[in-house]
Amino acid sequence: MSRYNGLDSRAGQGPMSNDPQPVAASDEFWMEEALRAAQRALEAGEVPVGAVVVCAGEIVGRGWNRNLTDSDPSAHAEIIALRQAGANLGNHRLGDCELFATIEPCPMCAGALVHARVKRLIYGADDPKAGAVHSAMEVLNHPKLNHQMEVCGGVLAGRSGELLQSFFRSRRTEGR
Ligand code: ZN
Hints:
Blueprint: H1 22-43, E1 50-55, E2 58-64, H2 67-70, H3 77-89, E3 97-103, H4 107-116, E4 120-125, E5 150-152, H5 157-174
Parallel strand pairs: 3-4, 4-5
Antiparallel strand pairs: 1-2, 1-3
The structure holds zinc ion (ZN).
The site of zinc ion has 6 residues, from helix 4.
């Protein structure tokens, strides 16, 4: 299993340094940050989902699920990250931004991504029950919407899936 540990980790690895997918490598780099945010949710007893908004090579928004903490049904990682990015950039349109989420966004978050005009969405594991990119329904890039967004799924998907599975497993054991 390969874990991407930072920008220098591929230097001097012989054939590996000719990796033809530099874009995927930087996607993994930012996804690590989203996974770190998901870890914060886990520590707070929340469903472990994390998100970061990246603009011009910098994180401008960061969020993790806070539904229980804030008694807020809309406090999903992506929403929190988008709000922070908007406040930081002083703009409710985030057309130069990319959002990295550990899980395929739900319909609410997909809607917010469209409202924000986010340029690109990168996510980890699919969510067969509520994913609104392609799994449960298609909110993002729906043919009736004007805004089309570039989407890349499956980035470090195993890691975000494991995080969720261990959370639900431990909740089941605690429930007994
Ligand atoms: Zn959501």
